[in-house]
Amino acid sequence: MPPPVNRTNIVREPGLIEFNGAYFYSKEAITITQKDEFFDVNALNFGKLEDRASDRSYEIALKPVGAWENLGVLFPYLSSLIGADIFGSSDTPLTVWTQSGRKYVFVNTALTTLPDTNVKVGDTLLADMTFTALLGKDKYPGDSDAYFTLTTGQTYPGDAAFSTSAIITRFPLLSYGGAPFDSLATVDGAMIKHTLSLTPKKVNGLGTIGMILADYQLTAQFQPAGNFEMSDILGITGGNLALGSSPTVQDLVIQYPGAAGFYVQLYAASMRQASFKFGTSEGDNLIQGLEARATRTFSAGAPVPLGYVGTSD
Fold first, then answer.
1. Each residue of 194-234: pLDDT tens digit?
2. What are the residue boundaries of the structural domains of the chain, listed by start?
3. Which of 20, 185, 287, 306 is paired with 131 by a 20 to 30 Å CA distance?
4. 86 and 78 Cβ atoms separated by less than 8 Å
5. For residues 189 and 223, what is the distance between their CA atoms, to the nearest angstrom?
6. φ, ψ for residue 7 (rounded to 5)?
7. How many Cβ atoms are within 10 Å of 16's Cβ, its own excluded?
C-alpha cells in the first residue's frame, strides 16, 4: 500500500514577489529554480563516482501582469556604467509571499532578465522577467541562511498595491525625426527589448558572488503601417551609406497617442534590418520589419543612457 498522504501538505497557491520596495504579481506560476554547477569525481577503476557542486544560484522567474509602474525597479540599469556589479555593495533581498503565511526571503538578489515590452492592443505590456539570487554577503554556502530563509505563519502583506488601472493596453504611435516618420502607426505594435550581457564574479569555495554588467542593448522592433516606398525606408536605414560609416541616428519615441501613461525613448537610434515583400496574402505589406537600436553617445566626456522609460516625456 502507498503511504498515507495528508492533502493539506500538498501546497498549491499563488505567490507575490516583493523586491526593492515594489510588489510584482504574475500571470502564471512563479518558479524558483536551483542552478548548481558541478564537477566530476572520478576513479580510473570505477569511472565517475559522483558529482559535487562548485557553484550555486537560484532563479526566480515570473510573467508579470503588465502593470506599468515601479519602472525604476523594472529597468534599473539604464544609467549603470559598464563594469558595474549589478548586485551592488550591499545585499538586496527578494521575498516570495503566499496568502497562507509562507515567507521565502532570498538574501542577495538582482534582476538579471529585464522584461520585453510589447506595446499593442491585444496583450499586456510586460513579458517574462527573472531575478537571480546569489550567496549573501559575508556568508558561506554551508550556512543555513546563505541563500534564503523560510518562515511560516507570517502575515501576508495584502493586495493594496495591486492596480488594474496600471495595466494599460493601448496602441502606440512612434516618431523618428521629421516627416514622414514623425507619426508612425504600426501593423502589430512595437516590441522593446532590454538585453543584458552579464559576467559572473567567482571565488573558489564561494561560487558566484556578483555579476558585472558587460553590455546593454536597447532595441525596438516594429512594422510601419503607412504609405511608404522602399526608398523612404532605405533612406533611414543607411541603404546608401558607405560601408564602415557611422549610422544615421535620431531619437525614437514610442508613446500612447493623446494621453500620458506610457513613454519610451531610444536615444540616438539607428534603423536596421529593413525587409520588404511583394505579394497579395495577409501580411504581404511592402514594408516589413524594422529594428531600431539605441547607440551610445557622450556628454562632457560621460556616457549618456541609451534611453528613457517612463509615463510621459
1. 999 999 999 999 999 999 999 999 999 998 887 778 888 88
2. 7-310
3. 306
4. no
5. 8
6. -60, -25
7. 21
